Sequence to fold (479 residues):
Amino acid sequence: MQPYKKLEDVVPHEENILILTTSDTCFNYDFSDIVEEIREGIRGDKLLIEEYYHSLSDLSNRDKLIQNSVWVIHWNECLKDDQYPQLGFYLETRSYPNEAEVIICVDGGSATVSKVESEYPHLTVASSKEQLVAYSRGHLNTANPITKGGRKKIKRWNEEVCEDLGVI
Amino acid sequence: MPSEWKVLKRAVESLDLTSDEFEDYVMVITDVYGDAIASSGDFEDFSEEYYDFLNRKVFPHERVISTLREAGVSEEDLIVFQDGEVPCDDLVKTWNKIEFNIDELVDMAMMLKLVKDYSFYSENDMIESRYRFQKLLYFINKYLKKEESYTISNSVGGELGMLDRTGYRYRFTRRDSGPYSNVAYEDKNRLYAWSLIDELVVSEDGTGEVAERNRRYGIKLTPRGEAMVKRVYDRIEESDSVIIYSWNDTQNKVVREIAGMSHDELTNMVKGDKSLLRAESGDELLVGPEKKFQTSEINFVEELTEEIAHG
Fold:
């Protein structure tokens, strides 16, 4: 990742949606289809969205993880039984950029959803494909370079990550 | 604060919608929001200007009102949306209050106090670098580890000493620059984002610290940070709690010891740390206590949560 020196450098901006899953599906939909639906709701043509599947065996590579501003985590596959303690540690200690949006997808009943929400009160919990799409669009249209506020937000996020990576 | 858009969903959390109604609402409002951003999202900051935009262009939108009306929301509640009077600022403050647990809040309060106390002894009225900031935190926890914890009832002490009960919750690993904690770095960034501390470029020479390789950043309190510390300072200094007293006392000792050191002297102190000498890059050096306090143990919780909420 390279730092944006000026506000104008932010346009266009490429963004990866980080997906942490073992099955590549969630809520009975392929993640690829879900990302396509998210992409269709992004306004303007200055924000390019790609999906990025990070290997769960490489979670110690935090430098790679923090370069993505949206994290989508399949709770049932990754957190429910503490399958990946390193991931749980990142969430517990908030070891992701301030400006990132972490969305935990819970495939389960309302009691399970409430339990996960109380366990991660600072994160966003989606209990359906529709919610996941809506929340992702909410974040990405906020950090969208079509507005000056969005460009400033993206630049701030880029600076934070570049500082963490040690490239500025 | 990040995730400002979440005020869209928080606006209906008190309306008692069913999960299906809530889902309909979030789908509609995020769609309306996207359109409004594209057509008239001319705000530059994400506080009052942004909330004003939401109350003009998003909450009163006919699709939003119609969705809420179909969900059976009362006319009394609907009028708040129709008139664009959703109290966004209060919703965010309330959320911030519950977003941070007591241990995180106390860490951030002690971190602000560290900046204030260190600045008093420093010639430059600031912590001179991010490197020094990280090492101060590390040595405070390290010294707590050396303190016996017999003062705590029902505690037999152990190899963690007082660090078993108090100190920063951070986990330090070995980096090229020595002990470093990602979480401490993130907490520092939060204080910056809330305008409680400022970071100034003080030199074009880096320190080798993470995020400080090419430039050096001094850390000082902003006037707002000063005002916040003032409100909790004496409560910490005069705390009856043994675990707060011990932490604060150790922190003050480390501040006095390190404030007079040059960068080279501090670097030598770090290099001489025995844990560091034994560790490989990436190895864990020191882990702070995970859970420290009950709300009832801290008598300035109310002030603290109020201040953070205003962040």
User: Anything to note?
Assistant: The longest helix of chain A spans residues 148-165. Residues 46 and 146 of chain A are 6 Å apart (CA to CA). Chain A touches chain B through 43 residues (CB under 8 Å). The two ends of chain A are 10 Å apart (CA to CA).
